[in-house]
Amino acid sequence: MDRTRLYRDGVLVGEDLPIAEAVARAAEPGAVVWFDLCSPAGEDMALVGRELGLHELAVEDAGTDRQRPKLDVYDTHLFITAYAAVLAGRRLDLVELSVFVTENALVTVRESPAFDIEGVVRRWDAGARMARYGVAHLLHGLLDHVVDGYFGVLQPLDEQIEALEEELFEDGAADRRGQYRRTFDVHRNLVRFRRVATPMREVVGGLLRRGADVVPAGLVPYYQDVYDHTLHVIEWTDSLRELVGNVREAHQNQQDIRLNEVMKKVTSWAAVIAVPTLITGFYGQNVPYPGSGEPSGFWISTVLIVAGTFLLYRVFRGRGWL
């Protein structure tokens, strides 16, 4: 459902106006308008783009999925692509958000209703005293909501990795294949998450570098706080990637160790079996030997087989190979 808001001189004066009316009000002195278009129809996007003077390339990008998070600068407006992230169990959901920033209008284009736009509105209402900064205030609340949502992804991932580390050295862990699968899922989610979280540093940093034309002096500390949060997110993400990489390496090392143990046992049993094979093979020669054709030969070979087998078994058992 499309939504609109109209501010005049820092005060909220109207909500849920028709798109055409909101576009007309945007030209009034002191007016700031927010347009929220969820999977917009072509005519609504065309109307907003035409009346606000949005660049055709930016409008095209807003209608194209899987854009890289970025900040594009045009003559009359800025265009931002960002992603909200939500971790649902072991599945990472990403929702693309396109944002047009003009002098007196903020346009958000969502690909699906999954984006928590109500959370953004609550942030704006909680900081209503900052609404005097106009579009910059609305943009800050939006970016702050997106970046803070990243912490809600990293915290569960951190807990999942911690659980994998604890399972790693548990004695008699049964579901080894399940552990590998969970480790792979965490690694895949981190890779996908990093692709959308890391570029946000350049997005927020680019806004700060543009100075007072975009970020008024009174809002610089707030944008700097969002920038610091993006750095924290990146550092945390890289740390978790290193941890999950260590877990995957430990899994591989454990597999190698278990394989070596199996090979030692197989080799040890082969050595034990080789003793009777050797002795019976020796006594099976077609040449005379001590005890040949006599009962004593049978008993001598039997004693050698039992003694040799028992001796090897004790030696291998003592070394932990059996």
Automatic annotation (TrEMBL):
Pfam families: CorA. It is found in: Cell membrane. It comes from the Bacteria. Its main location: membrane. InterPro entries: CorA_cytoplasmic_dom, CorA_TM1_TM2, MgTranspt_CorA/ZnTranspt_ZntB. It is a multi-pass membrane protein. PANTHER family: CORA FAMILY METAL ION TRANSPORTER (EUROFUNG) (PTHR46494:SF1). Belongs to the CorA metal ion transporter (MIT) (TC 1.A.35) family. This is Magnesium transporter CorA family protein. It comes from Planomonospora alba.
